[in-house]
């Protein structure tokens, strides 16, 4: 780095370091870790300062370096936190798992979805199964965002009501499995 490039870099750091430190703090949640993260990103940027093509936008490069340094740090930290055990966590035992109840519950949910009007069903599928925002759902369905929200509200109320009352599959599963029958 020649003297002019070093001067440019020092001016950039002086002008933008406060904002960049704030970003690093928000990523780490700690001021000291944020300072370390910013220092790492600025050191990386200093090494490549003469290669930056667009000198008008070095902040974008530094912010990207901060983000990537944080991701690398997170990966390193999370790697060391793993603990080796001989049992898998959160695994139900093979004898305790009742897959029939899960299948019946899924069938009840699908039946309740099929009973919804088409627009309400579409809103529920787009929102909760495809994880789309209101604006995108409104554009896909050709309706206003308020309509999306009201249809979501009505559909969820209908689903809650239909799943709260015992349906025919819930009654048949309890008698078929022997539970709920007093002999």
Automatic annotation (TrEMBL):
Highest taxon in the source lineage: Bacteria
Keyword list, A-Z: DNA-binding, Sigma factor, Transcription, Transcription regulation
Annotated RNA polymerase sigma factor 70 region 4 type domain residues: 107-159
Signal peptide residue numbers: none
GO molecular function, one term: sigma factor activity
GO annotation terms (biological process): DNA-templated transcription initiation
Positions of the UniProt region annotated as Disordered: 161-183
PANTHER family tied to this protein: ECF RNA POLYMERASE SIGMA FACTOR SIGM, RNA POLYMERASE ECF-TYPE SIGMA FACTO
Similarity annotation: Belongs to the sigma-70 factor family. ECF subfamily.
Protein name: RNA polymerase sigma24 factor
Species for this entry: Streptomyces albiflavescens
Upper taxonomic lineage: Bacteria, Bacillati, Actinomycetota, Actinomycetes, Kitasatosporales
């Amino acid at each position: 780095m020649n003297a002019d490039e070093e001067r440019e870099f020092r001016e950039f750091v002086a002008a933008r370091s406060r904002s960049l430190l704030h970003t690093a703090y928000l990523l780490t949640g700690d001021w000291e870790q944020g300072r370390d993260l910013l220092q790492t990103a600025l050191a990386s940027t200093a090494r490549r300062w003469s290669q930056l093509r667009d000198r008008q936008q070095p902040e974008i490069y530094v912010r990207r370096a901060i983000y990537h340094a944080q991701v690398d740090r997170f990966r390193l930290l999370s790697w060391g936190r793993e603990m080796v055990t001989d049992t898998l966590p959160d695994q139900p035992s093979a004898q305790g798992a009742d897959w029939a109840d899960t299948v019946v519950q899924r069938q009840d949910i699908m039946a309740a979805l099929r009973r919804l009007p088409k627009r309400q069903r579409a809103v529920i599928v787009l929102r909760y199964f495809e994880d789309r925002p209101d604006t995108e759902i409104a554009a896909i369905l050709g309706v206003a965002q308020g309509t999306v929200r009201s249809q979501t509200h009505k559909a969820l109320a209908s689903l809650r009501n239909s799943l709260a009352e015992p349906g025919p599959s819930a009654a048949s599963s309890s008698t078929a499995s022997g539970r709920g029958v007093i002999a």
